Amino acid sequence: MANTETSLKEALASIEGATGIALVDYTSGMALGTLGGSKSFDLGVAAAGNTDVVRAKMRTMEHLGLKGQLEDILITLTDQYHLIRLITGRGGNGLFLYLVLDAKRSNLAMARHQLKKIEEDLEV
To answer: Longest Cα pair distance anywhere in the chain, in angstroms?
Structure first.
């Protein structure tokens, strides 16, 4: 089991092309922890905005009567991937990991695999 700070550091260090990561509470929109980002890319603002994305997808699934569990959401930009992974275990209800990747330096399949592993080890 790893705490938030350790998990965020592991993600940024071990995921090729990762430029920022945050643990976010989508009930409040608050980032519980962030690492990376830049002056021109505020992870706190991005976390709050992506809270709306998660909420909208959950509402849509409810309206459609979809019973499957939401695992992750991928947003692709010309130069970045934004990966949102909902946390499912050990008190993680209402939380998600938000990972920003440089599209030119990352392998999306490996990033998803590694983020899932980090999520499984995270103790909230």
So the answer is: 41
The residue extents of the domains of the chain are 4-121
Amino acid 19 reads: T
24: number of Cβ within 10 Å: 27
Residues ≥6 apart with Cβ < 8 Å to 36: 12, 18, 19, 20, 21, 43, 100
Q: What are phi and psi of 86, to 5 degrees?
A: -75, 140
Beta strand 72-76 pairing with 18-25:
unpaired
Are 85 and 96 in contact by the 8 Å Cβ rule? The answer is yes
13: left (phi over 0), alpha (psi -120 to 50) or beta: alpha
C-alpha dihedral sign at 4, 112, 100, 57: negative
Q: Per residue in 90-123, pLDDT tens?
A: 556 789 999 999 999 999 999 999 999 998 888 8
Task: Note the pTM of the prediction, 2 decimals.
Answer: 0.93
CATH number of 4-121: 3.30.450.30
